[in-house]
Design brief:
The structure is a homodimer. Chain A has 10 helices and 12 strands. The first copy, chain A, is an alpha/beta fold and about 260 residues long. Chains A, B: It comes from Levilactobacillus tongjiangensis.
Chain lengths: ~260, ~260
């Protein structure tokens, strides 16, 4: 079914526009994928989509790749320009259901996970999910204070990796306890040179790595719950590493 | 000397405003450091500064740390707001002379260097300079097509690392030839899984690592000049790594 929408006052258009806000996402229990790259990643990963929307030109260009069982809406260019976060959208979008976090049980989780504690920069967060995917991790848990996985900037920098690995929003206290009580190592990260050198622990096949806030690192109460806290020795005069770079260095050392 | 400037038409104010453009930087052979963090890094590293400028409040707050031999200009808040790149400046700046690239000779360079070929994102570039500093590299060469080291966004993400290690703009053909003719290894990076696994080469004490463009990787002609080209094996389904993360993984493996 391909339905044409020509009025900016259309109820669906208003709902799609609202997907840049948390309230709007909650109302329809969906979020927005912007650009063909992300829509294509979702289709390739056979993710459920609730709608595909785009200009006639974009829908025609990708007609062969669109799944037959998803409703398609053709928008005028001026309506397409009002949807999404980028000032100059490509003109193709999809809506996907919000993830059901309650389906993911830390007591059953396998493989290696990345836990994010109060990480705030959307670009850093998305890059870490993408890196976790590349390094072969099983999933990423967005803990308290970490920016939403549905923010347009997070989605852009994840580049579709949320379709390859699990991305969950949950309380890290629960996840750390669940892992350590199963005797799975949880390695925190620490800005203290007295902590354990990240190169001096064995490779991980199951367990977790925790990254903390850009400025303050991991919360002290979480640091006390981990198996060990690791440190990346700084050789030069830089005060610290970018959090996404640090996460990449540790993940590729211990897992990749 | 602390001179008060109250007119936005002042000649110096116009020059400072122009430092966000290449033309403006060329005219006075200086660039702008924005925020106390960067000004302080320059002072700590005893970098030559041509002027320090700020609001009365900011200058008073940091009076004890300002070097005695640099001219200080007190600006009204409304003038300070027109200088620099950030919408809401902190109100303190310094101007520093542009680097003299001709002072750096690849035939004499020691230690490990990072070469950037056509890297375009200012945040990625600055993060790589900061990471090179942290990993103990000697310097970074900005090759052709790489964004300028004086762009405000590059300066922000370098976080002052340009005062700790050398940052040069030069032709990578010259630098690669100079290194390989001295029998120093130059490791390119390659998106081809047939290339050498980055974990299978020995640690570097002198030589170079080359990172390429975000979308296209290193230029083919440069790849043919290197000692070897390295690949980071991707385990998951991500198509690639962010260039700054990839650089961090390789630098910390081979140098850090």
């Amino acid at each position: 079914m391909r339905e044409k929408i020509t009025s900016g006052q259309n109820k669906r258009v208003k709902q799609w526009r609202a997907l840049t806000s948390k309230k709007g996402r909650k109302a329809t229990q969906t979020y927005l994928l912007e650009s063909w790259h992300l829509v294509q990643e979702a289709i390739k990963a056979q993710q459920p989509l609730t709608a595909i929307l785009g200009t006639a030109e974009q829908l025609d260009r990708h007609a062969d790749e669109l799944p037959a069982d998803v409703d398609v809406f053709e928008l005028t260019e001026s309506i397409a320009n009002t949807i999404g976060d980028t000032g100059t959208p490509q003109g193709i979008f999809a809506t996907a259901p919000l993830t059901r976090d309650e389906d993911v049980d830390p007591a059953m989780a396998t493989g290696v996970w990345l836990f994010l504690d109060y990480v705030q920069d959307p670009g850093n967060i998305g890059t870490m999910v993408r890196t976790a995917d590349a390094a072969g991790l099983a999933g990423v848990v967005f803990g308290k204070g970490t920016a939403s996985r549905y923010l347009p900037k997070v989605l852009r920098s994840m580049q579709g990796s949320q379709f390859h690995i699990q991305v969950v929003e949950a309380d890290l206290h629960d996840w750390i306890s669940a892992f350590t009580s199963r005797h799975l190592p949880v390695y925190g990260t620490n800005l203290d040179p007295q902590a354990k050198d990240y190169r001096d622990v064995p490779a991980l096949s199951a367990g977790a790595i925790v990254m903390g806030n850009e400025g303050n690192g991991m919360a002290p109460d979480l640091q006390q719950m981990t198996t060990r806290n690791l440190y990346i020795p700084i050789k030069g005069q830089a005060e610290s590493l970018n959090v996404a770079v640090a996460a990449g260095v540790v993940m590729f050392r211990l897992v990749g």
